[in-house]
Design a protein that fits this description.
The chain is mainly β. The chain has one domain: Thrombin, subunit H. About 5% of the residues lie in helices and about 45% in strands. The protein contains one helix and twelve strands; from the N terminus they run βββββββαβββββ. The strands form three sheets. Strands 2, 3, 4, 7, 8, 10, 11 and 12 form an eight-stranded antiparallel β-sheet that branches. It starts with a strand and ends with a strand.
Length: about 140
């Protein structure tokens, strides 16, 4: 098949990842993470510190933010993976060739990011962040 946006991601602690999680439509953020720090001197002059490559372009890293829809069991598994190194295939991938789209990332679940959808706690919204150290 062709490279296309799917309605799910692959996320697991083993490579290649096999567990799939549905992605909510409104929760995708592919904004790259750029390592830039700004500060002001005593006179107000702006000082910028950033990582640059050989061409003097800022180095950016993959940092995807997703809103997942998880069952209770999936939510508990994802909570257990928080802070660990995971293997991640974003929802923009070729289903027949997952190896080329696998990223080694750290799963971060910010505080207040887990909320139940229904009163029986069958399904949960989870806002997760996947940060990797591979420069884009």
């Amino acid at each position: 098949m062709a490279l296309e946006i799917q309605d799910h991601i692959y996320l697991d602690t083993s490579n290649p990842p096999t567990a799939t999680y549905p992605v909510a439509a409104e929760g995708l953020d592919w904004t790259p993470l750029v390592s830039v720090v700004t500060e002001r001197s005593l006179t107000g002059k702006l000082h910028i510190h950033r990582l640059v490559d050989g061409s003097d372009d800022p180095v950016s890293f993959r940092s995807d933010r997703l809103r997942l829809i998880a069952t209770l069991a999936q939510m508990l598994v994802l909570r257990g993976m928080s802070g660990k190194t995971v293997y991640y295939v974003p929802n923009y991938h070729d289903p027949d060739n997952l190896a080329n789209y696998t990223h080694e990332s750290v799963l971060i679940i910010p505080e207040g990011s887990i909320a139940n959808i229904d009163p029986m706690c069958t399904y949960w919204f989870m806002n997760v962040r996947l940060v990797d150290d591979e420069a884009i």
